[in-house]
Amino acid sequence: MAADLIHPGHINILKIARDYANALDKANTDSSLPKAEVVLGLLTDKAIASYKRLPYMNYEQRKAVVENLSLIDRVIPQETLSYEGNIRALLPRYVVHGDDWKSGTQTKTRQNVIDTLQELACGELIEPQYTPGISSTQLNADARAIGISTNARLSLLARLLEAKKPLRILETHSAISALIAQNTSVTHNGQTVEFDGFWSSSLTDSTSRGKPDIEAVELSSRLNTINEIFEVTSKPLIYDADTGGKLEHFVFSVRSLERTGVSAVIIEDKTGLKKNSLLGNEVEQTQEDIQEFCDKITAGKRAQITKDFMIIARIESLILEKGQADALKRAFAYVEAGADGIMIHSRQKSPDEVLEFIKAFRAKDSKTPIVVVPTSFNAIRAEELAEAGANIVIYANHLLRASFVAMQKVAQGILEYDRSKEIESSCMSVKDILSLIPGTI
What we know:
Elements: H1 8-27, E1 39-43, H2 45-49, H3 59-66, E2 74-78, H4 84-90, E3 94-96, H5 107-120, E4 124-126, H6 136-146, H7 150-163, E5 167-171, H8 175-183, E6 185-188, E7 191-194, E8 197-200, H9 202-207, H10 219-232, E9 237-240, H11 247-260, E10 264-268, E11 270-271, E12 286-287, H12 290-303, E13 310-315, H13 324-337, E14 341-344, H14 352-364, E15 370-372, H15 382-388, E16 392-395, H16 398-417, H17 430-436
Parallel strand pairs: 1-2, 3-4, 5-8, 5-16, 8-9, 9-10, 10-13, 13-14, 14-15, 15-16
Antiparallel strand pairs: 6-7, 11-12
Helix pairs in contact: 8-10, 11-12, 12-13, 13-14
Enzyme class: isomerase
EC number: 5.4.2.9
Protein name: phosphoenolpyruvate mutase
């Protein structure tokens, strides 16, 4: 079980398992044998994240709950969706599972249980009828519709990093774009793939306001946008803070972001007036002194209150053509200063220099999360980046760029035809828009 929200369906399954254990004890005439146990395989966060969203409570919290149910004798971790490992370890007399897995994505898991029990000749599969009208997935969806607390949202990114790889993060610059990001999903090989969180980009936040990307939008204005996003969504958000400003300003920003419920902030090691990184050396850009940037990271870490808030250091060495050695030197220094993650950036069309950096960094540091933004080298898949050692893949400006194309096409079409009939197929229906927004219908 995931056992995030305990409901009557869970209790019914456990009661049936308890009845089978009691029957075994009653039939046992050898008093020297131990009593039959009901052992619960509790899915870990990693196992759950492999097929659906993280539960509200982490594994230890869920374990503390189910361990106190009198129907259960022992709780063990279920590390994967496959039961085979635990079956081989326990050699159970019975495996009890609701019959809801006879169809859908768990049919292969069910067949593996049957095959393993037959191979080991150790037990029997018991499949009670699934309790009608009760669904953990629907209960979780209903709970998320009500909302999520600030601390719960803030901690989600750190939990996701522990549970799955890669995390796919999509740029959102408004509440409606965040709703699109939150509700978009596809199915690959029976597994649901969706975006794991949001990216608040300084580029798209300023551009959506018609302002230049030079840190012209102040923190308070950007926090207003984030609050609007948080009012209607439940996923974590990473904040693009550009250089972070002066050390004293960055300390203030960390406290404000953390208080709002932002999970992480990314700051880049440049100084002076903000210039977009994809311009590289075509414009004058100055990289920050290593020690001064380390001091900023350390000050930010000291300022935060919770353990889950993350400060990620963005390295511009490859953008400014300073080479791998400089990028790696900075990366290890920033981690030593307290950075919770490293973002390596590149404007090359090929991912080669990013992959080279990841390989060299991972040779010395296997744990610190690596963030990549494949805007330029967009042919590589997220799974390939994960296999190379990246943890977070950010699609940094795509929703805003897409909206420009769509809006321009519709605006021009209305003028060309002098009416809107011909461009209706390029527009989402009003009904579909209203159904996307919570509380409208």
